[in-house]
Amino acid sequence: MHHDQTKNTLKFSKAITFCFATLITGCGSGSSGPSTPQTSNPIQPDTGNNANYVSFIRDNHVSIANLTNTEDFHDLRSLDTYFSGPRLIQLGESSHGSKQMNQIKNRLTQYLHQYHDFNTIAFESSTFACTNALDIKPDISSRELMGACIFGIWMTESVLDLFDYIVASQNTERPLKLAGFDVQRSGSFDGTHHYQTFLSDALTRQPAQFELDLETLVTTVATLSERDRDCFRDYSQSGCDYIGQQLPDTKATLDKLVDHFVNQVTPEPMTLLVTRSMRRMMDMIEASYEDGISAGIRARDRGMADNFIDLADSVLSNEKIIIWAHNFHIAEHYPSAATPQKHMGAHLADHYGEDLYTVALYMLSGENASNSRQRTGVTPHAPNSLESLADEATDSIAFLPLNKQDQAGTADDWLFIETTAKEWGTRETNVVLANVYDAIILLPTSSMPDYL
């Protein structure tokens, strides 16, 4: 979830600034004095948590041995039953700035590729740059591939390990493909010359002629993307004015271009994906410009879902795909009654049903980074929150599968009511966990990424 898009234009009130509480450190456990005999069952401090809820996590989670071992996946084989059926697996994260979340997602991706035939990793990054990067430059290095494709928030040592694996796999019988599904531009291969070359070649392959000033179109689309950030991040009136002036004609031209490619005798799935993604970016910009940032976020999630459906149903129709994105975007249902917004994952769940399996990641302690790489500590947890229950239940990396039906007894009732869980380790949100995710991975601690 990229907060370049969480700013209002000058036409609207400025976005709320969140004031994060500082992390309370040095949380000690009780100890007995020298004259107090130790017992085999020491009294535990009262956390305020429901004991049945704590027991549910303790009894139902699967422990994961470590974050980084990609030579031995023995511990992950206990997850085979959950990953053997679905065609699509979403791997979320409560923060884009957690070293441990990047590490476990890298390890899970390699495990899913090697043991469950998942042959594509699709990032919450540029549809064009990521999906075409290895075709644009087949001999690209792993670090250059990262810069060509993904947002800078993931330019870290742990994610580089995954891109090393992607590049090395290209010389095997079963390479791990790279893709993107965001309507936003994110990498160096989003340069206008790459778009112009791609679209020019696509038009040349079609027998029907189409009159188009291609250079002007791709330049205007790129400028609209930049002015969208200016308008909503920097409150630039000139940026907002440019959007108002250029957006209507650009939308109309892209509509004609999409129609041209759709109406070919043999439409090209990748060409349609790229041009439709460009058009969906215009929908996001228009929604923010006309109705405010919440409308822009909804349009982005709708556009990402549509991009992914085009990718999975047409471009990579025979592939099993891993989705790498924020927990916010992969949510399969409205998180709560107070958040009436259909996220990308809800659109995908409607389309794919049981073929989609969604795993959210949460951290219990430590620190993480904002999108601007600012250090933020995980704040103390409220009683009966997801993090508080998990922190009391286990010290391991825990994979917690979620039933979709409330079971007999009361131990899992908290999964079917609004429960507090944190985005970015600080921002408490209400979420009905069993409705939104199929499983949760709980990380005992988090630290700042090692940025490149």
From TrEMBL:
It holds the Pfam family Erythro_esteras. It comes from the Bacteria. SUPFAM superfamilies: EreA/ChaN-like. One of its GO terms (biological process) is response to antibiotic. PANTHER family: ESTERASE, PUTATIVE (AFU_ORTHOLOGUE AFUA_1G05850)-RELATED. This is Erythromycin esterase. The lineage of its organism: Bacteria, Pseudomonadati, Pseudomonadota, Gammaproteobacteria, Alteromonadales.
